[in-house]
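hey so u asked for the seq, here:
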Amino acid sequence: MMLAHRLLLGLAGLMGAAGVALAAASAHGTDASRLASASAMLLFHATAILATVALLARGLLHGGIGLVAAFGFVIGAALFAGDLTLRQYAGHSLFPYAAPTGGTVMIASWLAVTLAAGVARG
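ran it, structure tokens below
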């Protein structure tokens, strides 16, 4: 297995764990709706990373484009969830437009998965 695949699998595991922790914090905190959104993005995209790596390993996605998509899921979800979490606990954003930037990166990553499927050799 490629080093990039192992890295992505590890990052997906961390994202999943953080997503569960944020879900718990959301359930037990007051006015913590931001944490629920952050949790959902982490959990959903952790699963998307696992699926993308599995499809890459089976040759069903173009390798380079699929890797870009998977790393985009990591970056986008981290920006989105990180910004919402920081707003919740510190009262300020990661940087201006961090959450929308993360959302845009996730959208672009989904489109990259579409492209990677379309141009795959398999």
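The radius of gyration is 15 Å. Residues 3-118 form one domain.
lmk if thats what u needed
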